[in-house]
Description:
Elements lengths: L14 H10 L13 E5 L11 H19 L3 E5 L1 E2 L3 H16 L3 H4 L1 H25 L10 E2 L3 H16 L3 E11 L4 E3 L4 E15 L8 E5 L10 E4 L13 E3 L6 E6 L11 E4 L5 H10 L25 H14 L3 E14 L7 E10 L2 H12 L4 E3 L3 H10 L4 E2 L1 E2 L9 E4 L5 E3 L14 E3 L3 E2 L1 H5 L2 H4 L8 H6 L4 E5 L3 H16 L6 E5 L2 E2 L16 H8 L1 H11 L6 E2 L2 H24 L21 H23 L5 H4 L3
Parallel strand pairs: 1-2, 3-4, 9-11, 15-23, 22-23, 24-25
Antiparallel strand pairs: 5-6, 5-14, 7-8, 7-13, 9-12, 10-11, 14-16, 17-21, 18-19, 18-20
Helix pairs in contact: 2-16, 3-5, 9-10, 9-14, 10-14, 15-16, 16-17
The chain binds zinc ion (2 copies).
Amino acid sequence: MGKELAKTYDPKDFEERIYEQWEKNGAFRAHRDPDKKPYTIVMPPPNITGQLHMGHALDQTLQDVLTRWKRMQGYSALWLPGSDHASIATEVKVVEKIKEEEGKTKEELGREEFLKRAWEWKRLYGGMITKQVRKLGNSCDWDRERFTMDEGCNKAVVEFFIRLYEKGLIYRGNRMINWCPECGTSLSDIEVEHEEKNGLYWYIRYPGVDGSEGVVVATSRPETIFGDVAVAVNPDDERYKDLVGKMVMIPIIERQIPVIADPYPDPEKGSGAVKITPAHDPNDFEVGQRHNLEKPICIQADATMNDLAGKYEGMDRFACRKAWIKDLKDAGYLIKTEEKVIPLGGCYRCDTIVEPMLSDQWFVAMEELAKPAIEVAGNGKLEHMPKRFEKIYLHWLENIRDWCISRQLWWGHRIPAYYCDTCGEMVVTAQAPERCPKCGAKMRQDEDVLDTWFSSALWPFSTLGWPEETEDLKYFYPTDVLVTGYDIIFFWVIRMVFSALEMTGEAPFHTVFVHGLVRDAEGRKMSKSLGNGIDPLMIIDQYGADALRFMLTTGITPGNDIRVKTDRLESARNFANKLWNASRFVIMNLQDEKGIIMPVGSNADGIALKDEDKWILSKANEAVSYVTTCLDKLIWHSRLSGCMS
Length: 645
Ligand SMILES: [Zn+2]
Ligand SMILES: [Zn+2]
């Protein structure tokens, strides 16, 4: 007897075994074959902190389908896998681990020892996620696996930084940033999650120095009053005409500040008079710049008040707010309290309310870099599928602000800038300078690391060898399709596009294939706090990787979210089971007496096709041509499953 498939379909019985065979035999290895056309996808690198989640499962299944399809069409198809060092997320986890196991803070441990622990973490957990990627059956080229902090990627990051710096596109500045007191680092604008919450506005009187009534200002953050340097009113606001140029007093602490005229205050809003705190509010910062005002900081990095707050020094910002309001009320300076919807920014990592704060940081000047990225969307060199996501892409680029790239963390790419404390010289260089080129004193490296996205922005070309002109880069770059969820367009896609255009002169891919998010059965986003996450590995264990993948790929419509439902998983498994049984039947019936399997439909072998054979072959061909058309256009919808039923 020849080969016979097992009676029951049991994916556990073969999925892993077959994957190992594939990998061992180099089935996924892409070759630089001059006779073949390349087809390249870089895998959005999962974080080394993470477990594989359903979002990865969907994202990667789509990439696998495209890669396998092109491979079958005779392309030299490369799907390049890797993982991301995830600066903030990993540092938070490593800090927790050290606290738990050694009872120490990272400062007590010191930078060098801390980094040793972080690399250890990477060795332990970084491998876990790639094992999980294999469980999905993904056909990526593991020989080309990369990590955002491996030697080549490090080199690319430093090169990118230096080139932008030398062009004047990276600068260091004292600017307003979003500060997370819990994570102890700055955040870029898009790492802040904006929410509207019911809150309070307090109306507080600043009496005139001359004993007059002075002016009433409204604020939702009274603890920042200690950093006030002026009260601004609109020059067209008749109510305050006479006050401009006069001095008022911050109540209780009795510091004198001027009333200034500036277009920023809206006479319709609040009292029409605005307190100006340049160090803790981005709009106030602008006003401060226009009027050459000082920028005193009153809230410290750990969100406690400093000595400017007088008797509240050392108190947490919110505890201070409470005590301060009570004191203002008791002293008769609190005029009224108003309930209002207040915009709040929370840290995307830990939900802590971010504090806008003035700080020395590194920035990428975005205006010039954004222009070519806008152009490629207009001239067809970069397509979004579905097309509607181009709007989001363009909206972000057209309203882009400079990108704060320094993070007050240790895990990541350290900024290649060196300072001389003796003469104030700064050098940006790949090699640590022995001595200060100006005065010969020792130099110290910038303490900060770069935003994680600064390295993932280079992913499509750093992984292929850039800045070296490698054979891989020449053959496989630019890549073809980037597959990603819509939630990451501005975090990542935009940054890859402008970085690639600036460094390689080409868009990093011709198509951005955008899919939706995977939600639970009720349509809620899966999250740790809700505890509604579904572990794809559990699903694979229960239903098999094929069923999971089939459910995900047939359940989506372009760019829309998908819900994971048990009945859909069951029917996906039933479909796999049906294929199994059909194959089993065919294999059993196509064996000759020696157990050799005879080819189907090969007329050349003298097999006469019956009408029903012809019918089913024509149906199979129809399905192939339909699927090919859909994949060609990247039209991905449930009819794909329709043509397989
Ligand atoms: Zn945080
Ligand atoms: Zn010097």
